[in-house]
C-alpha cells in the first residue's frame, strides 16, 4: 500500500488553479514569493534491505533517509543540498549528481518508480518497483532533472546500495594529464577523480584489502599518493557545466596557459566546477526543440514551477 497522494493532488489542483511551485527545504533552488507554494508528502513507508529498495515521500529529508538506511548497512545515491540536507524530491528534480558519479553512477539511476502529480492535478505512475524492471518507456529519467516542470514528485521508490567497507581519498601533487589517465585506467571503478591541472584527488571504495593493494601498486608504478581526509572544498567552485569527458584535458591546459579562472574537473565524467559562471551555449538546436516539446506535452499551460529553465536549472 503506497502513500495516499489524493490530498497532495487536491492542493496542486487542476490547470485552472493557476501557477504553482513545489518546494522542500529550498537548499538548491529558492521558490519565488509571487507563486503559490506546495510541499510533497514526507516519511519512509517501506524499506526492503534484501530487495535493496526503499519507498518514501518526495518531501522526506535526505538526512533522515540516509540515517535509516545506515542502520541496515545501506545508502541511497542522492547528494545533500548546499545548505542543509535537502529533500529527496529536491535532489531528484534538480538531477545533479555529486562528485562520486564516476563510481556510484548517475542520480537518475537511483529512481525506480515515481508517482507524481501532473499539470492538471492528476496522479500518474511511472517506472517499476524493482531494480530489474526494464519494461515500458523510462519516464522516470525525464522526471530526474526536470526541476518540477514535468510533474510534482509525490512518492518514489529508490534503489539502495551497500555502504562500502572502505572509502578513502588520496591526492598527488604535480599531477599531469598522464597521471590522471593512469588513475582512471589502473584503479578499478574509482569513485571520484578530481583534477585542477596541478593536483589530482581520487577516491577508491570497496573491500579494504583491495584498496590497500591498489594503492601499493600505484605507489610502485607512479609514485606514492598522500592519503587525505576527503576531497577539496567545492564551495569556492559554485558554478558548474558539463562537457564531453575527452575535452577536459584540453580545457584544463587552456586555462593553465592563460592563467585565468581556476577550475576543478571531474575526470572521466565531464563536469567542470568554476569560480565564476560561463555563458551556456547550446549548439544543437535539437536539444532546445526537444525541451520545448516535452514542456508542451507535460506542462502545456506552464503552471508547474514557472520561470525555471530546463536547460540551466536557474530561475529566469
UniProtKB/TrEMBL annotation:
Membrane spanning residue stretches: none
GO molecular function, one term: FAD binding
One matching Pfam family: FAD_binding_4
PROSITE patterns: FAD_PCMH (PS51387)
Domain annotation FAD-binding PCMH-type: ranges: 1-163
InterPro entries tied to this protein: FAD-bd_PCMH (IPR016166), FAD-bd_PCMH-like_sf (IPR036318), FAD-bd_PCMH_sub2 (IPR016169), Oxid_FAD_bind_N (IPR006094)
SUPFAM superfamilies referenced in this protein's UniProt entry, alphabetically: FAD-binding/transporter-associated domain-like
The protein's name in its UniProt record: Unannotated protein
Source organism of the structure: freshwater metagenome
